[in-house]
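My current task is to audit a protein record that another person submitted. Please read both lines and tell me whether the tokens look consistent with the sequence. Do not assume that whoever made the record got everything right. I have pasted the whole thing underneath without changing anything:

===
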Amino acid sequence: MSSCESDVPKSSKGAPPIDQPVQNGFDVVFVGLILFAKRDRVALFPNGLVPAKSVTPHHPYLVVNPKRVSKEVGWEGVDQALKDLGIYQLPACRIDISGATTGGGVDGSQHDRDVPKLVDVDKTIVIDPSKALIQVNLRNGELEALRHPDSLPTDPDVAIISRLRVTDYTNPITIDINETGTKTRSLEIQAYTDIALANIGFPKDPKKLGDHFSIYGALTKKGTISGKSPTTSPVVTKIHRGYRIFELNIPISDGHAQCGSQGCCPPP
């Protein structure tokens, strides 16, 4: 199946235990096509706005519980119906999140070990961060690789979702959107509010069933990625379903290995 929408049941008997919500802090969940460079601890969104003709365009979103938004600036031009759901369309930008993009450092040991690697698919690739549609510099918390919440324990074809868990943070959270070096939008949310950043094929186009994984090629110097799309992922803990992005009744969550997070060699 080439679609990124999951077709597995919401639960199953004998499924492995899921993890627990964060205590005394907040989570930033990364869903969809997002590359994590180990050396610089940066999350890079490949530009999937205009992919190959057979591939559903991928759009970047910020997703939060709308009832926990305290203040928003600069979001007048986005889709109001989506914003009412807590889905904010993102421009090309750098995203700064108080408590997450500044701080004392990232523990990414489990993520570094278990996140799938682009170099395992194409050993010739060289990443060019300047081609990223969106960058998020991770500077605080624990970075983890987790399984899609709808996954079955025996299913190897599962998307990996990355999560930055920030603990001992009790202040309201500010999210700043910086376009070409200038802050153009911001969002303030209540303390202890989880955040999702997504790069996904939504709105869905059922006529375009091409390989979504090919969009990762947009981050390489040559503009393409060779090799077959992954169909398996490491067996890791299944993420819990309590995040706003998984509660929405729209096809905004991915489900298959080709549509999950990836890791890679740092840029030269």
